[in-house]
């Protein structure tokens, strides 16, 4: 993500531009929004491609990479002892190959 400048879509340092702008007293599609949406969708697809099926179910409805990240952060960002125990159990159940 970082090497392709996509982290800014996750941490929202690059905010979503307006979909439409007024130019010469006419409403037009904002080309910056089109470019932003294309890159955000790329970031979102990379996130979805790198998670397990169970996790994918949690983020499937995310509209943006940032939305998906917030969902993941809420689910897996906890450092509680119970959360650590559950993650260790999941690691033990992973099969190679």
Structural features, described:
By secondary structure, the chain is mainly alpha-helical. The protein contains five helices and two strands. 57% of the residues lie in helices and 8% in strands. It has one domain. Helix 2 runs parallel beside helix 4. This is Retrotransposon Copia-like N-terminal domain-containing protein.
Give a short summary of the structure.
The chain has one domain (2-93).
* Biggest sheet character: 2 strands, antiparallel
State which percent range the strand residues make up.
5-15%
Structural class estimated from helices and strands: mainly alpha
Cα(first) to Cα(last) distance is 26 Å
Output the radius of gyration: 18 Å
Domain tally: 1
Q: What is the helix fraction of residues, given as a range?
A: 55-70%
Number of strands: 2
Shape type = elongated
Mean pLDDT: 89
Helices and strands, in order, run as HEEHHHH
List its traits.
8% strand, 97 residues
Topology at a glance:
Elements: H1 7-10, E1 20-23, E2 26-29, H2 31-49, H3 53-59, H4 65-76, H5 81-93
Helix pairs in contact: 2-4
């Amino acid at each position: 993500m970082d090497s392709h400048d996509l982290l800014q879509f996750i941490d929202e340092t690059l905010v979503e531009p307006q979909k439409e702008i007024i130019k010469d007293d006419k409403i037009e599609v904002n080309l910056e929004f089109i470019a932003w949406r294309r890159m955000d969708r790329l970031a979102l697809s990379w996130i979805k491609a790198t998670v397990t099926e169970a996790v994918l179910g949690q983020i499937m409805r995310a509209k943006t990479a940032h939305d998906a990240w917030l969902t993941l952060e809420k689910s897996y960002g906890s450092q509680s002892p119970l959360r650590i125990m559950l993650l260790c159990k999941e690691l033990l159940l992973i099969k190679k190959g």
